[in-house]
Design goal:
Layout (H helix, E strand, L loop, with lengths): L1 H19 L2 E5 L8 H8 L5 E2 L2 E2 L1 E4 L5 H11 L3 H13 L7 E2 L3 H10 L3 E6 L9 E3 L2
């Protein structure tokens, strides 16, 4: 009984903190929808085009809450393994990692200004008028 009560209390107290870490994938207005498998291919360099046009994917800075959440949910790697993955790929000449931008505001500005751009931000940073293509 105490365990159940503790669980319920924990959900009530900390459930909002988990929701605050929700991320949204945003894209330039020309992109209407992207599914999780395609995002995984784009962020691991196994795909570079989306709908016949070059995709310009951007990452949040290492260690940020949005990056850790995105990598876990979509790419299914932690930040350290993702960085190691790209170190090897770059070394063997199989591409370069996605561009890293310093903040959600920079990601939003880049995505809005760049055709083919895709990025992710925390749901709490979402602004009206952004083209949300996925809520993982």
């Amino acid at each position: 009984m105490r365990t159940l009560l503790g669980f319920i209390l924990g959900v009530l107290l900390f459930g909002g903190a988990w929701a605050a870490d929700d991320i949204v994938v945003i894209a330039h207005p020309g992109i209407t929808r992207v599914d999780q498998p395609m995002l995984q291919r784009l962020y691991t360099g196994r795909a570079v085009e989306l709908g016949g046009a070059t995709a310009h994917v951007v990452n949040a800075p290492p260690g940020s809450a949005s990056r850790e959440r995105f990598l876990a949910l979509v790419v299914q790697l932690d930040d350290g393994r993702y960085t190691a993955y790209w170190t090897v790929r770059r070394h063997v000449g199989k591409g370069v990692p996605p561009r890293e931008l310093g903040s959600s505001a920079e990601i939003i500005a880049y995505v809005q200004a760049t055709p083919g751009a895709i990025g992710y931000i925390l749901a709490s940073d979402l602004k009206p008028g952004l083209n949300v293509v996925l809520r993982p």
